[in-house]
Structure formats: structure tokens, C-alpha cells
Amino acid sequence: MSNSIGKKFKAPQELINAPDKTGSLQQNGLSVITFCLHTQGRKGSYFLKDHLLLYVKSGIYKVNFRDREYTVRSNEMVFIHKSILIEYDKSGESDSEYTLDYMMFFLNEKLLEEFVQFAGVKPIYPVRDVVPVSIIPINDLTRTYFESLQPYFDRPSKVSDGLVKIKLMELLFHLADSNERFLYQLLQPGSTDNNSIVRIMEENFTNPVSLQDLAYLSGRSLSTFKREFQTTYNTSPLKWIHNRRLDKAEKLLLETTLSITDICYSTGFENIAHFSKVFKLRFGLSPSEFRKKFKLAENEVKNIR
Asked: Coil, strand or helix: which one is 246?
């Protein structure tokens, strides 16, 4: 596997055309995607725009978030809150020729609101032990549900919008009935502490985030987030992110041997041309010229000493 950093992509948008995808259902902002591949290890990362339920039929899917690793094995499911960056390490197992077979169910806020109303779920007040990633065991009824989806993937063009929604509602009912704690994880924000805006920004400025994502992570409405951000930083969120990314790019150019491409992606820029343009506007030199100039100056100082 290559050691290059690679672009941080958004899910589910950029998974729809993944080369190892075996089927998908996309209707009115709802997405279900299946994958089946042979691998002894494949790593990457993505930023979740919607909540994710990921079911592993066979193989191992490891999820890393902050300092914790979660291992999802055959016939297990993981629930991951939206608006966070996930690093993954996925592999098959030797007794199945390293086959990894899994499904990804992306749940938007509208679907969750409709589920709560339709199911008659009582309001769940904030609890202290909500975690952004949680493993969910699967029972026989839920496993049968996953098997029932295969005909839909075989003929996706014949599946109506309403049927996709009903099947996702059915999944939520299965999980709510078998695991009461799932509802607590599903219906709570990703964090219930005081959500320092400073911490949220430092953790996410290199991620492909929107202002709505940042507001969600901070537990604030968009208007409140913008107002409090302006008070804290005396600038707008987008300007702050732009300058913070350039500050980090400058540091990486001077202190590491990472390629310009890796620095571009690791600091949150989405293409090299744009990164080079905005870097030159800020520092007066392109990234490669900047590194060459200051490395040369550094070597001259060392020679004098």
C-alpha cells in the first residue's frame, strides 16, 4: 500500500462510484451501498455527512476515531455519528480467501425525524455516556433483514423512492427492538459536553466540513455558532479555516519531507492547483519555491556554523 496521504473524501457522496462497490440504492438523499472485495488490508479515511450504520457480513472493518479503535467483525454492525472524520482499516479473513463483504446505510436527519414520529418514540433527553462510535450486535431477525435486501440491489432501477425509505425504517425498527441503547446513540448529538468552539475548530479545520457540520459538532444552531465564533476569533469561520490550513501547510513544508501533494491533501485542500494559488497569494511563492528558498537558507546557516 502506498504511504501517500491521499485526499479526505466525503461519504456517501464519493462512495457511489467506488471501484469495489457491488451495488447501491440512492433515492432522495438516502443511500445504501454494498461492497465485496478480497483484501488483506486497505486503509483510508472519510468524513461523514450523514449518520452511518455499517454491517459486516464477513471480514473485519476497523474504525479509528480520536484515540480509540473499534473492531467490527462478521455479523456485527457499527453506528457512527455524522460530521466526524473516520479512519478505517478493512480486511478479509484467511479462512474465506480474505473476502470482505459489507453494507453501508447512510441516514439523514429527515429520515430519523420521520422514524421517531412514525414509531411513536418518546423524546430522549441528553445522557452523559453517548459515544460517537458504537458496536451493535446482530440477531437472527436482523440478519434475515440484510439477506432480504439482495433482490433490491440486483434491480435497483425498479426500486421506488418509498420502498427504499420503508426498508430503512424497517432496519431502524429491528435495531431499536433488539438494542434499546441504540436509540440513545441514534437520537443524541455526537457529544454532550460544553463543546468548546476552539476544540471543535482545531480538530476539524483540515476536514471537508461545512459550517452546518461545525455547528452540529458544537451543539449549536448555525446562527449561534457564527455569532459565538465571531466573538471568539474576530473573523469568520471560513476565513479562519483558510488561514489555519495555510499556516499548517507552511509548517509542513519547512519541517517535513512530505510531498507537495500530500501536504495539500493533509491540510484540507482538495486540489493542487488551488492550493498552490492560495499559498502563493499568502506567502508570495509557490509551495515548491517556498520550500526550496527556506531550505537553502537553512543550509547556508548550517555551513556558516
From this structure: helix
The whole-angstrom distance between residue 58's C-alpha and the CA centroid of its chain comes to 22
Nearest-angstrom CA–CA distance, 229 and 201: 10
Taking the alpha carbons of 48, 33, 31, 187 in that order, is the dihedral positive or negative? negative
CB distance 90 to 60 below 8 Å? yes
Instruction: Give yes or no for a contact between 102 and 34, defined as CB atoms under 8 angstroms apart.
Output: yes
d(C-alpha 254, C-alpha 129), whole Å: 41
Single-letter amino acid code for the residue at 219: G
Which parts of the chain register pLDDT below 70? 1-6, 123-130, 184-185, 187-195, 296-305
What whole-number distance in Å separates Cα of residue 15 and Cα of residue 11? 6
Question: What pLDDT is attached to residue 248?
Answer: 96
Specify the pLDDT at position 2: 41
70 membership: H or E segment, kind and range: strand 68-72
pLDDT tens digits for range 19-51? 888 999 987 778 899 999 999 999 888 899 889
DSSP one-letter code for 206:
T
143 CB burial (10 A radius; 0-12, 13-18, 19+)? middle
Contact by Cβ (8 Å): 92, 38: yes
Taking the C-alpha atoms of residue 186 and residue 173, their distance in angstroms, rounded to an integer, is: 12
CA separation for the pair 246, 283 (Å, rounded): 9
CA–CA gap between residue 213 and residue 38 (Å, rounded) = 34
Query: Dihedral sign, CA of 155, 160, 166, 171?
Result: positive
C-alpha 203/C-alpha 205 separation (Å) is: 6
Residue 3, pLDDT score: 47
Cα–Cα distance, 138 to 136 (Å, whole number): 6
Residue with the three cell numbers 486503509: 43
What's the pLDDT score for residue 8? 76
